[in-house]
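Contributing new records

If you add data, match the layout below exactly. Sequence lines come first and carry their own label; structure lines follow with theirs. Keep one chain per record. Anything else will be rejected by the validation script.
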Amino acid sequence: LANLSITNLYMTNLPLSTSILVPSLSRSREAANRIKSSSNLRQIGLAAKMYANDQPRTNAMPGDFATMLKTQDISVEIFINPRTETELPPNLASLSVEERGAWANEHGDYVWAGKGFDDSAPADRPMAWENPMKVDDGINVLFFDGHVDWMTMGAARALLEQFKLTQQFP
């Protein structure tokens, strides 16, 4: 009889326990995806800096994501934000580097703002960020010094307005 009452108690509390745990797991997944996106942006920043270092006279940043894919040892996957539902093209293995670059420029989840700068740009200037049209609560922003900050939409908009970059912001 004691076993039966413990089983009944467990079964009646299971929905309550589940309702408490599921939102917690969802928040953990979102936090992990933010970290992965931040890592993607850092890789983009490193690829851009390496590209600039390979330009001996100008130290110019690449003009777009395609240029990074063509010249640096990176994969198209880093241009996909895990916080979005963007999927790689099903024929990725058969695409040329140029086609992968074109895909990253057109379908990637990050906005590039490094074109026209060199590696001496101000450290606090945004270089790239998550496409705000594809996420809701805030965005990760990559700065020219290589660090990434997560910002609320309001803070990100104010930062991008400061640098006159709001044409890429909704």
